[in-house]
Amino acid sequence: MSEYYPGTSIIHRLDPRTKFLIFICLMLIVVFIMNPLILLGIDIAILLLYVVAGIPLHRVKGMILGVIPVIIMFVILNIFVIPVKNPTIIGYIGSYPIAWESIRAGLSGGLRFAIFVFFSRLLTMTTSIGELVSALTKLKMPAEAAVAIGIGFSSVGILIEQINTIKEAQMSRGAPVESRNPITKAKALISVIVPSIYLTILRGLSIAKVLESRAFTYNPSKRTFRKIVKFTKLDYIVIAISIGATLILIIITKFYHITY
């Protein structure tokens, strides 16, 4: 049920808690830094980690194509929604001025979203559910919550693939799934949404049966794990580099006033 890709790469060997820390560092970066070029560089760096981890390139291509429409949406919304002081006008849509600052802010927002998507998917593709749950319990999280979060993380990619499969199946049957009219498209998507909800419920019931069959509900706080996660020398090195790079990047950005 997981989108986990087994491997022995440096990304796979990292403790899940180290990956969580890297994720937190990235979130700090996107909060303090809004320069599109820096954010684009971070996106490219994360995509290179997919290559290092041995993730199939078609999965990476699919994620990039899925994020591009969101970035475009961010840009369009910023043009019409975000007010700009002393704008640099580069054109007009009818009589409405288009400011370069609005486009730049939209690009920054879209690239921030891409960072979140790319790294969260990298985390689930290089970390098994067992390792994820074990790491969360090491962080003193209740076992029930850890299992729920672990299953939730691993189900994101499966849900996306499930929706795409149902969509392709409905299109092969002649169902009008695609339409330029937003109202017509919303109605057509019912044929995709309803089966997706049904299959999600079935998967949830199957997971519940598996947990019951393994007696998970009997004193879950005292459960043991087959594989115990622990920090290694590699984790300490990566943690030091991540924290150091985050602090340096934030300080340089603020010191030289290159937020934009």
UniProtKB/TrEMBL annotation:
Q: Which Pfam families match?
A: CbiQ
Entry's transmembrane regions? 20-51, 63-83, 103-124, 145-166, 186-205, 236-258
Q: Which domain of life is it from?
A: Archaea
Q: How does it sit in the membrane?
A: Multi-pass membrane protein
Gene Ontology cellular component?
A: plasma membrane
What keyword terms does UniProt attach to this protein?
A: Cell membrane, Membrane, Transmembrane, Transmembrane helix
**InterPro entries xref list:** ABC/ECF_trnsptr_transmembrane, ECF_transporter_component
Give the subcellular location.
Membrane
Record's protein name: Energy-coupling factor transporter transmembrane protein EcfT
Organism per entry: Ignisphaera aggregans
